[in-house]
Amino acid sequence: MTLLSVRDLSLSVGPAPILSEVSFDMAEGEVFGLVGESGSGKSMTALALMGLLPGNARVTGAARFGAIDLLAQGEGAMTRLRGRDIGMIFQEPMTALNPMKTIGDQVAETLLIHRAASRGAAREAAREKLDRVGLPGDRFPLSLYPHELSGGQRQRVAIAMAIALRPKLLIADEPTTALDVTTQAQILDLLGGLVRHEGLALMLITHDLAVVAGMAERLAVMQRGRIVEAGGTEALFRAPSQDYTRRLLAASGHRPARAARTAGQHSAPLLHVEDAVREYILPRPSALAPHPRLRAVDGVSFSIGAGESLGLVGESGCGKSTLTRAILGLDPLQGGSIRLGGSTVAVGRIMPAALRARMQAVFQDPYGSFNPRHSVGRLVSEPFHLTGRPPDADDRIAAALEEVGLAAADRHRYIHEFSGGQRQRIAIARALIIRPDLIVLDEAVSALDVRVRAQVLDLLARLQESHGMAYLFISHDLSVVRALTDRVLVMQSGRIVEAGPTERVFASPDHPYTRRLIAATPTIPAAWKEAAHAD
Amino acid sequence: MRLSLHLGLALTLAALLAAGVSLLWTPYDPAALSIAEKLRPPSAAHWLGTDHFGRDIAAMLMAGARTSIAVALVAVGIGMGFGVPLGLLAAARHGGTVDEVVMRGNDLIFAFPSLVIAILITAVFGPSALNAILAIGIFNIPVFARVARGGALSIWTLDFIRAAEVAGKGAARISAEHILPNIANLLIVQGTIQFSLGILAEAGLSYVGLGAQPPTPSWGRMLAEAQTMVTLAPHVAIFPGLAIVLTVFGLNLLGDGLRDRLDPRLRARP
């Protein structure tokens, strides 16, 4: 039976059209995927249904939810509806909860607002819901605050809040995008279980085709505010009828063409990390107790050969960022050594500029990676600080921009004029301009949409081909690491638990943790894809 | 939001204009006494009337604006000149001893009520506009240090700072090249607010006789001299009072308006 029927939903904010004629249906108790790249309008669709649009938004069309039209309701009616009939969870579990209230109060609040449940009864119900989402009472009492929980646990609390009143529809907007793969798998499991056992319908909004493939029965693909294609998940994956869907599918498993490289072990290693230890001193638990220590990096050893591409995978908190900072000479080690081409990497001015100039880095956040007040030309030429500004600096800036697929004239523009993918290209140009021997890529493509990600991966593979520098590719995304590296290290709690040629590690992982990571990574079934490629 | 910015800008410009024009021209000599003309109400000859010595109030207000603005401006300059580098230094050495020393030093200055210390300083070194400037300026230092440190700490976490570190730049260079331009908004807004507080503080010190000394005209002293005659000739007190209120009001509106305009947190990401 139809639960939600959206017809010709159009939306504009100010003069800008956001959605045009979006129509779809959802049945009771089904999982419906809404897929698209950033800016395609999938989140705005959800906000329109919830009546949470900005004040200057104009909506036309209809969204029938049972007997009522969601788009025609006043704010008062929507307030009663939200939480009771439609629940919603958001991407960022770090900010979706109120840091000043206990988790028990936050879950109970939903009940107290909508029903005249007594305080005691609401707390009992809150306990029950938290148990249901996998936060049992003995380990997660109601009196905990959000900062005492991990990201995945917070997302569970957000889900408990959303399902507290047994809504008929749950809208999940990128619920697992901010989470690690294993946590993502658990949250998706939980959501799937809720759909099966509690009979609620789930609208799963995501940019990740692999997540939808494993969850949704039906899906709609959005592009620039329109639904370009909709249908049963498997049929749509096997035989996409629209060009856009086909390109999206091709990009999601994209692997750049790379020549197989010799592992480079026989030549002298470029970077050699030996027994690296980095400890943090934590605050004293009580006034007289000694400071506890956290070993973020615990006896890590590896090396990278010249021109080699090495992957480093692990979940957040495993120590990979700390290790990266130490390799780049930004943080000191407490033990062990890092040598680059035979010279020791040190922190600050002790490290000679010429040594520092042999490695550069590309960071994750395309928005935070650039000083918004400098022109692109100045941003890209920043590493010249290490080598001294060469006489042909202008030509080299132009060449670096052209090499990453931008125009030489772009040097006069400012960073806010560029999209996320273009910004990562500029970051690569900045790393490339002094021709380092090693580029550290710290989650360099994690924030990008699938198609843009595929293009940037191609670019990285091509640049390595032509310049022969080594990559240290750090990511939590196994498919990306698999696409670009020769060898891979798997890191868990500060230690390297498995190392080996990428294909070998992915095909037959030895360590249970590696196996768990690979099993948790959502994938599009191979059979579906073959059909799509044959098309 | 827009209105407050424009109104604030208009009031501030009016005060600056009055001070600027007074360098070249005032309707009368603000120091010229004319007992025969004392306590005249506003008229065509004396726009805002005269005080108990027969001095022209409009001329005194214009010249007084110069004193107020000069004192407040230099005090803000002292605060920014010392406070911002200290704040940037503390942020660059976040969590270290230097940070701790700078911030606890700030707390120490904050711990004293500012006007009382200003009175102490002027009482020890003698009342003058210069000592008023120093006294007000010293209390601006911790304000700017805190604002600069707070703003800088949030910029230090961004990846473009990592990129600059990877490019081998030291903390001083990063602070000057990358941090300062990105916290300039905050500092400008804080500057206008401290400027208005400086004008108030100067008026307060002059009111108790510790600021600018006669014959240098000062809004605060005009107010102090007029208070015994409020029932007799209210305009003598009202106009300097109004000048202080409108200028401070204007600067606060300007500060708020600039904050709304410049604060990236209130602006949508492009």
TrEMBL record, chain A:
UniProt keyword Nucleotide-binding present: yes
Annotated ranges, domain ABC transporter: 4-249, 271-518
The record's PANTHER family line, in alphabetical order, gives:
D,D-DIPEPTIDE TRANSPORT ATP-BINDING PROTEIN DDPF-RELATED, TRANSPORT ATP-BINDING PROTEIN
Name the UniProt record assigns to this protein: Dipeptide ABC transporter ATP-binding protein
Protein location:
Cell inner membrane
InterPro entries given in the database record: AAA+_ATPase, ABC_transp_ATP-bind, ABC_transporter-like_ATP-bd, ABC_transporter-like_CS, Oligopep_ABC_C, P-loop_NTPase
For this UniProt record, the keywords arranged alphabetically read as follows: ATP-binding, Nucleotide-binding, Transport
Automatic annotation (TrEMBL), chain B:
Q: Pfam families, alphabetically?
A: BPD_transp_1 (PF00528)
Write down the Gene3D superfamilies for this protein, in alphabetical order: MetI-like (1.10.3720.10)
Q: What is its main location?
A: membrane
| Residue intervals of the ABC transmembrane type-1 domain | 65-255
InterPro entries in the cross-refs:
BP-dependent_transpt_permease, MetI-like, MetI-like_sf
Where it sits in the cell: the answer is:
Cell membrane
Q: Which keywords are on file for this protein?
A: Cell membrane, Membrane, Transmembrane, Transmembrane helix, Transport
Q: Which family does it belong to?
A: Belongs to the binding-protein-dependent transport system permease family.
- Please report the name of this protein according to its UniProt entry: ABC transporter permease
| Native species | Albidovulum sediminicola
Q: What is the lineage of its organism?
A: Bacteria, Pseudomonadati, Pseudomonadota, Alphaproteobacteria, Rhodobacterales
